[in-house]
Amino acid sequence: MEIITRSRIEKTKKYLRFFIAASLLFSVLLLIGIGSLFIYAKIEGPPPLAVPQSTLIYSEDGKIIGESNKGQKRYWVNLDQISPELLDATISIEDKSFFDHHGFDLKRIAGAAIADIKAMAKVQGASTISQQYARNLFLTHDKTWKRKISEALYTFRLEMNYSKEEILEGYMNTIYYGHGAYGVQAASQYYFGKDADELNLAEAAMLAGIPKAPSHYSPVTSLSKAKDRQLITLNTMVKNNLITKEEMKKASEKEITITGKHEHNRVELAPYFQDVVKNTLRTKLGIDEKTIELGGLKVYTTLNTTHQKAAEKVINEQIPEESDIQLGFASMNPKNGYVTALVGGRDYEESPYNRAVQAIRQPGSTIKPLLYYSALESGFTPSTTMKSAPTTFKFNDGEDEYTPHNYNNKYADDDITLAQAIAVSDNVYAVKTHMFLGTETLVEAAKEKFGLSTKIKDYPSSALGTSGARVIDMVNAYSIFANGGYKVEPVFIKKVESATGEVIYENKFEKEQVLDPDTTFVMTHMLSGIFDPKLNDYSTVTGITIRNKATRPYAGKSGTTNTDNWMIGYSPQLTAGVWTGYDKGKNISLVNDKYFAKNIWVHFMEEALKGEPIKAFKPTKGVIGVKVDPHSGKLATKDCSASRFTYFVKGTEPTEYCIDNLEKQKEPKEPPKKKEKEKPWYKKWTDWF
């Protein structure tokens, strides 16, 4: 008996030693495992938290005008930009122990494991917010053990390297709420039409319940199911002492308005402008396509929504719907080069080809101000005269000939002034100037001073705009006149921020004088002459048809070829240019089609500047204004047939008086007859006798 008892004791001791050894081995292995996890987490470091986000494009006044996405709406917001009720509701329904565990809820894991064993399949989840965030960032949503192991490793790394607040913020911004909405901000805007920090308790509880099964609990799909899920969420909040029963009752009964619409569903405003912005991000700023599309950038542009809407409205009103005429339009702030509006065609959906920045078309007479500025620098003045008559020019050492023609073959057959040549757009005067200066002068000026990206050909006909140019370049060139001669370039982007708010690009404008300010002002004043009937001669001034539609001072120039119509002009605050024509270069034959550019321009300027102060072009210190006879360019007096106040660079103003007055001065004047004193009556009788 004693032997049996001793044997049992020995066996018990043996089992005990085995249990202790096994426990020690398990503890060692556990410690090694935990240590390995720490070493793994240390070696791997913090996992990157970058997630795909929509890049947002803002107008100048801070309104969102578009976004780039792949059918997914993702906007990142900080925790303080999320309704506290929504945070409480989410934690309560998804992971009430979130702030107490270290990434894993062991009780929930055990319960889920038992349920899985009973069903012999993976049927129940026990994922914490940390685990779900890890899955959203790095993994798929497959219910497999391999994925769960990977999820655990990522979760461990998240908990080791980030605070609970950072994890919660990341989770709230990556969870899927259905209908393409990722994160609370996109979901709040889609379901309720408001930002995430504006949600009340009722809305928060409803939104917090959606991620469990977005297609099932979406209030857009089924409001009744969404309400049922909302009630469950509210009950958990009561159990977790986050709200009272009274608050739960009020929230469950509160009426909720569901919008079911993404705030920025598609590009609606300035699609051509937005294309240029994205191209600028790629080509000038060197940002890769993936970052542009899903990098969460905030792109602050120069677009003025008032100007853009005015441009689109005027274009639709002025060009009949049935017309095949196309157009390119751009407006710019001349002070800094900010492009305030851009239209590259009549229908973006039909043709995304951007005629404002891509098309190269003959600018016609709109090129002449660039030529005439060079003429002023070379000694011309507004009163410089040359004969307007049919002329044949020989070039290439006399081997070639060129004969320009005026519109409708009308000529003055007499001398006209430079001011008048601009106003009536005399072609002979322009080519004479071009040949006198040397054809290379315009070529160099267009590139070096006015920044044209297309080359002007070294031909006599280039004075009449036969070399192609882009709308955006021509508007930029006129902006240099408008701002007093400072160099500007078309600017579409003011600033770009990363998803974290870091400024990765900011436009900086530095003033550089490229034109003489006095000569520039004289040029501007001459360009105002296209609206002044005092400069009418053999032909009327080219802006006469839109003169009565203008309510403020403008300067500008129109241009016409067989296939192109242009109008470019400016006020002190704004420059705008329009090209109209056919894409395939077909001749513009209908009379009304030839007036589209001018009408669009003047109506846009009036609409865009409505409410702005009316400003005149301010004379510079180095100019002087005198009254001249518009036909001869000489000083005018009250005896001249007409007079026009004209500006000159000081020292170049005329000193002779107009011909009419001189001729009157040369005519001999008869001396007045002396009036004889009347004789008395008796003297008359004496003389009679």
TrEMBL record:
Protein name as annotated: Transglycosylase domain-containing protein
- Domain Glycosyl transferase family spans what residues? 62-237
InterPro entries tied to this protein: Beta-lactam/transpept-like, Glyco_trans_51, Glycosyltr_51/Transpeptidase, Lysozyme-like_dom_sf, PBP_transglycosylase, PCN-bd_Tpept
Keywords for this entry? Answer: Carboxypeptidase, Cell membrane, Cell shape, Cell wall biogenesis/degradation, Glycosyltransferase, Hydrolase, Membrane, Multifunctional enzyme, Peptidoglycan synthesis, Protease, Transferase, Transmembrane, Transmembrane helix
What SUPFAM superfamilies does its record include?
beta-lactamase/transpeptidase-like, Lysozyme-like
Q: What is its main location?
A: membrane
Q: What broad class of enzyme is this? A: transferase
Coiled-coil boundaries: none
Look up keyword DNA-binding and say if it applies: no
Q: What is its EC number?
A: 2.4.-.-
Q: Which compartments is it annotated to reside in? A: Cell membrane
Biological classification of the source: Bacteria, Bacillati, Bacillota, Bacilli, Bacillales
Catalytic activities: Preferential cleavage: (Ac)2-L-Lys-D-Ala-|-D-Ala. Also transpeptidation of peptidyl-alanyl moieties that are N-acyl substituents of D-alanine; [GlcNAc-(1->4)-Mur2Ac(oyl-L-Ala-gamma-D-Glu-L-Lys-D-Ala-D-Ala)](n)-di-trans,octa-cis-undecaprenyl diphosphate + beta-D-GlcNAc-(1->4)-Mur2Ac(oyl-L-Ala-gamma-D-Glu-L-Lys-D-Ala-D-Ala)-di-trans,octa-cis-undecaprenyl diphosphate = [GlcNAc-(1->4)-Mur2Ac(oyl-L-Ala-gamma-D-Glu-L-Lys-D-Ala-D-Ala)](n+1)-di-trans,octa-cis-undecaprenyl diphosphate + di-trans,octa-cis-undecaprenyl diphosphate + H(+)
Say which domain of life the source belongs to.
Answer: Bacteria
**Record keywords: Transmembrane helix included?**
yes
- Source organism of this protein record: Bacillus seohaeanensis
Do you know which Pfam families this protein is assigned to?
Transgly (PF00912), Transpeptidase (PF00905)
Q: Where is the Penicillin-binding protein transpeptidase domain?
A: 332-580
What GO molecular-function term can you cite, just one? glycosyltransferase activity
Where are its TM segments located? 15-41
